[in-house]
Amino acid sequence: MTTHGDPGPEDAAQDGVAAYALDTVRVRRAFDRAAKTFDAAAALHTEVRTNLLARLDWMALAPRVVVDAGAGTGHASRALIRRYSKALVIALDSSPRMLQAAGRRQSWLRPFARVCGDAERLPLADGSVDLILSNLMLQWCNPDHVFAEFRRVLAPHGLLSFTTLGPDTLRELRHAWAETDSRTHVHQFIDMHDIGDALVRGGFASPVLDVERYTLTYLDVRRVAADLKATGAHNASRDRPRGLTGRRQFAAVETAYETLRKDGRLPATYEVVFAHAWTPDTDVQRSTPDGTSVSLDDIKRQLRARRPS
Known about the structure:
The chain has helices at residues 9-15, 24-33, 38-41, 43-55, 75-83, 96-105, 143-153, 171-178, 192-201, 221-230, 247-258, 296-306, and strands spanning 65-69, 88-93, 113-116, 129-134, 154-165, 205-218, 266-278. By secondary structure, it is of the alpha/beta class.
């Protein structure tokens, strides 16, 4: 999954993201470590990805270039290759190991490109992309920064379609930890309405957002924690507690979570925001902060070289 740059004081004053600031180094390392375990534990990601891709059926699209932002192990990229057979599909992620896993699973007869890059500093040229799809990446990002980059690289009439997590996500785990202390043990998530406002600030037109809730169930709290670790979803809040959790404190978390057990299982709620928005007819070109970009012709040449002769 792709991560974000740290918001500074001016950003916090403008859009109130200070409470959501993350340790980006920790995020990247967590997803690198999770590359081998992600697929086996990603039941939520799989279900949400299926629903996100199905929503493309509503759109009349014939994209030339498609970016799967926060591609992880490449499942959405493979689906996009099948859906848009004439398009160049680029799997973009900040985790090299995730992209390595994606490469091992793709078809060499119809490969997608893999680009390691940050969603806040996309190594792509202005107006060079027709469709950006992003599944459960944005919760690890500063939305204002990411939307500005998405807007920059999308061509006029380009489509952004994505999912992210809302504030009700992991409410049961948050409640259980709150019974033990007042520190931040669960990453905070941005409200759907604030995401919509960020899209408008980013220059997108006609944003449409809605929410679906998913509930996973577990035998015990340890299995909740194991799934989160396996998918790279560590607590990366800047003000998270440092050090290991003691046995006594974790036992208190287990006791608090037990009060929520239903039908012999513990629930873990996920509030998923689905959204799409378009770029306007005329595009205002903006450059990357460092002026670097990847040539699409270079990417196409690399893909042709990978195909078996």
